[in-house]
Amino acid sequence: MTTRRTLLIGLALAASGLTACSGAPTDDPTPVIATPTESGPAAHISVSADPTAAHNEADVAFARALLRHDQETLDLVKLAPSRASSLEVKQLAAEIELQQGPQRSELERWLLNRSQSVDSSANVKQAGTAKKLAALDGAAFDKAFLTAMVAHHAQGLALAATEMADGTEPAAKALAASITTERKPQLERMRTLLAG
Question: Looking at the keywords, is Lipoprotein present (predicted)?
Fold first, then answer.
């Protein structure tokens, strides 16, 4: 685990009351997406850069789908601090929230800068999953949460693969590549935790 990734997780856990840790705010106003990974420091990708860059329908579909996907993820991970019993599950949820919260805001900006509509509402099925998780706690929550997140992360990786194949805007394709790098290790961690 890298020093930067440890710091990022620590900051997120502190915000949820899980540990005592603090970080200094940044003065850099440039919108970025932080994507800490198992293998190295966080990558920074600005999807708001150059709104005049050529993009196609696949890029727009990717941004809209990923925006909704990230909101659904945040609805799930925000339940973990108060309901999970496993420290590993709490740490994973904090890490994901720290990554996808800023990413969600940046995707909204990307769409608006290209005169595209924004809709981040969760679908009915995912809203039902969040409601079921909210009724659980302890080990039962951990298992149900990880099961839901395995399927959800796989969907995110599928969105990224489609964008890599069909998209044209370099920034959007770079985001898709970073998602693949970031979420594959997380998916394996979830599967390992489920198997344990």
Answer: yes
